[in-house]
Write a structure and sequence with these properties.
Largest sheet: 5 strands, mixed
Number of helices: 4
Number of domains: 1
Structural class: alpha+beta
Radius of gyration: 16 Å
CATH topology: Alpha-Beta Plaits
CATH architecture: 2-Layer Sandwich
Oligomer: single chain
CATH class: Alpha Beta
Strand content: 25-35%
Length: 116
């Protein structure tokens, strides 16, 4: 059999990577949502950092994905446990859907949701 030659390239937008990561983070009990405002800062326009709905995305030269996820967590949740589960679920989801390696997932709890 002949090896099939690629007929082009496939590129995935950072918005798609962020969407997958955000979806995976929101699946975890204790996560109230993503904090888009907490993820943005003044230097973004200088470094051209990609921030999409509370997830910062960077892809290095080796095609490894580096993610920062900014969360709003429910007040009664155990923050460390939530963050650990978010990291694991984000890595599993992104790697399964994209076939690329996730080098790191940094989780920032940037706000807490207090419910009456």
């Amino acid at each position: 059999m002949e090896a099939t030659q690629p007929i082009g390239s496939v590129r995935v937008a950072n918005e798609v990577i962020a969407s997958i990561a955000g979806m995976a983070a929101r699946e975890i009990d204790g996560v109230d949502g993503l904090d888009e405002a907490g993820a943005r800062h003044l230097g973004d326009w200088l470094t051209r950092a990609a921030v999409h709905r509370g997830v910062r995305v960077a892809v290095d030269a080796g095609r490894q994905i580096h993610l920062q996820v900014f969360l709003t967590v429910e007040a009664q949740a155990r923050l460390v446990e939530v963050a650990d589960r978010v990291q694991a679920n984000v890595v599993e989801s992104v790697e399964r859907m994209l076939g690329l390696q996730v080098a790191e997932v940094d989780v920032f709890v940037s706000s807490v949701a207090f419910v009456d």
